[in-house]
Each structure stands twice: as C-alpha cells, then as structure tokens.
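Forum > Structural Biology > Help requests

Title: Can anyone predict the 3D structure of Hydroxyacid dehydrogenase?

Hi all, first post here. I have the sequence for Hydroxyacid dehydrogenase but no way to get a structure on my laptop. I'd be grateful if someone could post the structure tokens.
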Amino acid sequence: MARRPVAVFAIAPWAFHDVFPADLITRLRQSVDVDPAVTFTSFDGAEAARALATAEILLTGWDCPRIDAEVLKAAPGLRALVHAAGTVKAIVDPVVFERGVVVSSAAEANAVPVAEYTIAMLVLGAKRVFGRAGHYAAGADRSAWQPGAGTGLHHCTVGVIGASRVGRHVLRRLRDFEVDILLSDPHVSPEEASRLEVELVDVDELCRRSDLVTVHAPALAETHHLLDERRLALLPDQAVVINTARGSLIDTEALTRVCATGRVSAVLDVTDPEPLPLEHPLFRMPNVFVTPHLAGAQGRELRRLGEFAVGELERFLGGRPLRGRVEAAQLDYLA
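Reply #1:
Sure, ran it for you. Structure tokens for Hydroxyacid dehydrogenase below:
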C-alpha cells in the first residue's frame, strides 16, 4: 500500500469538533495520516516541532499561528495549506507562496451564512423592524410600529458595495426579490455587470439612489472609511446601511452622528473599533442593531467549512483544480 501523506491540524480546540466531526475525520483518514487528538494554536515546543517535521499538509482554522519562514523551516516537506475558515490574510506570510506551498481557503463556504444574514437584515431593515420593535416594547401607540409608507423590501433599490464572494452570493439571492440592484466595484466590467443583472455605478451614485446599502468590500487603504460623512450625507432619508465586511469601511463617528438624527438606520455585524466600547451610543439607538461578528459560520454551519476543506484536500491529492485556491497576488486584496 502506498504511503499516505501526513496532515497536521492547526485550529482552535473550541472549533475543531464542529468543523471536523467524526465522519469527516473518517473521510480524511482515507486520504492522509492525521491525528485528530492533536491540534496546534502555537508552533512552539517539541511536540509541534515533531509534527511539523513530517507534515505535508496543514489543515488550519481559527487561532492558527501565522505561517512564516520559521514555520516553513520546521516543515520542510509542507506542500499545501488548507484553511477551514475564511480569509488567510492574517495567517499566511508571502514566503509561503514563494516556497511553492499551495494555499486554499474555505472562504467560499463561509460566504454563504454571511450572505444569508445579509438578506435577513435587508428584509428586516426595510421593514424598520428594530426601531418599531423598540417602540412596541415601550408601549408606544400601535401606529408607531404598524407597517407604513416607505417600508418593505418590495421595489426597493438595494446598493451592493463590492462583488466579493459574499457580495456575489447576495446578488444571486436578491434575484428572488423584486428589487432594483446597484453595484459598485471598480474591478467589475460593464459586461460582467450585465451578466450579474445589476446596474454598475460609482459609490456616490449608489449612495444617492439606494434605499438600502450593504457593504462587502475588503479592508484596504483605498477602502478605509469608504462610507464617510460626505457619502453618508448622500443617502436618502430612511436609508439602511448594513455592514458584514470590515468595520473600517465605515467612519464610525460619522455613522453615529447620522444615525443619531434618525435619518439613517444601520445593521452592523462588524465595527471600528471591534468590539465597540460598552458605553458607545450606537448600542443605545433604536434604529441601530449591532451584532458581535456572528454573520459567518456558526454552530451547525461550521460543518460546511470542514466539508469544503476535506474536499479541497482530496482535490489537491488527486491533482484536480482547487475551488478555493488562493494565489499570492490576491493576498493584498483579501478581506
């Protein structure tokens, strides 16, 4: 029997069993030698050194240490890194690509629950659910929470900033609703926009025309405070801003000021800073809903990441194209 490659886990213990349940471990062991009793969140120490010395594949996830030149020196036979989570930006040093190690991420699988969260918040935001629920709980007159003019997603204009993995999932799901879709992304051509069935516009025009704006761009120098005070002022009255991408894409203080007027509402799964200080005024505004960075895979959804990673490992060993391959040139533009 041919020798099977050796794989090593580098993932937080709290996530391990949900990402890699027993049946996926059984499936893994058909392709690689791997010890599910050993997972690393640090590569310091003799045990990690022994594991890295024979490792050909790293199966990584949350709390994986950064893979840099020192780690590669300790893992001379490393051929692939398969990340059973979202972005690899924080854990993969460019030297990994220089060494020829193949990198893959389950970001595509993690994008699914983020898109589902986004659609849910678009529906609820369009109904002004959060503010109206607060009025209702406070004993307000029925007219304060009943559906009124200008509520509901039907025939809204939804502005999507960024045709990222999540952004594209959102665009596909929005086709099930009778809405007009605007997209702002400098890397999308008019021809691709036509295929995506969206109207391509710049960010300023998107802000002027959108009833709801959802942000799905990466955190880059050029996207820092993409929605600043000037652009937030362009939003129509009663607009809703949803951010599931990165907190730095929105100027928090400018958003706080505009939401305090009641003119704009917001749903924020990410913030800048993150977490927000407990006394931050956004927590106390009835038209703002803040969640603790939970739009990505949670609980039962984590299995999807493990399934994706195991499938990638099988494709890699079979010499087939990888669905989640990450190239060196992409590293600077990942979320």
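The domain at 110-290 is CATH 3.40.50.720 (Rossmann fold). The radius of gyration is 22 Å.
Shout if anything looks off.
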